[in-house]
Design brief:
With 167 residues, the protein is of the alpha+beta class. The protein has a single domain, classed as Gcn5-related N-acetyltransferase (GNAT) (Aminopeptidase). Helices cover 32% and strands 33% of the residues. The protein has a seven-stranded mixed sheet with strand order 1-2-3-4-5-7-6. Helix 4 links the parallel strand 4 and strand 5. The longest helix is centred in the middle third of the chain and has 15 residues. It is globular. The two termini are 30 Å apart. Bound molecules: acetyl coenzyme *A and zinc ion. The site of zinc ion has 4 residues, from strand 4 and strand 5.
Length: 167
Amino acid sequence: METVAESRAGKGFLVRKARREDLPAVIVINRVALPENYPEWFFEDHLNRWGEAFLVAEVEGRIVGYVMSRVEYGASNFDLRRLVRKGHIVSIAVLPGFRRRGIGTALLKEALRNLRERYGCEEVYLEVRVSNEPAIRLYEKLGFRKVKKIPMYYLDGEDAYVMAREL
Ligand code: ACO
Ligand code: ZN
């Protein structure tokens, strides 16, 4: 019988929890893929506190993608009067040469599962540049909907969509 790990390896990549020693590679991918970069302690802090939802994708032993999340308690994105535990997808990226083969989808699906099962989150949200069509499509495919727009969210003045879904 095929195990989950083997069936993922069959696709040419493996998704697993991030480890401390993966962080240098994660930081490089973040810098290559996104203008939103963070100091090393920020990655460490997320790994220490919400490590079940900090995942990496590996191809032949090389880290080619990551998703970093956290857990917050606050107003629901679907009903502002309700307080909920919600997952926040802080950052996700896949190295350019490894895109469009399902790695982003696999990372995000596993993060959503762990946010629900390990952390008891009832919903999940993220911010994304309004021009970031690939990412918006990925999120919509996984059931996220645009819930609001935040003007001038990014340092260069671009607006963000907040996208959210129930878990
Ligand atoms: N154009 C159009 N649709 C796309 C594209 C694209 N370039 N890339 C992905 N999609 C959509 C498609 O619907 C795709 O399904 P399909 O290939 O069957 O058509 C679906 O998303 C899933 O694609 P995956 O292969 O699972 O995603 P991938 O591994 O390529 O990773 C990601 C997607 C993470 C957005 C990647 O493009 C990336 O690293 N981009 C740069 C970093 C970035 O923008 N990160 C998100 C910022 S917002 C945040 O971090 C909260
Ligand atoms: Zn955010």
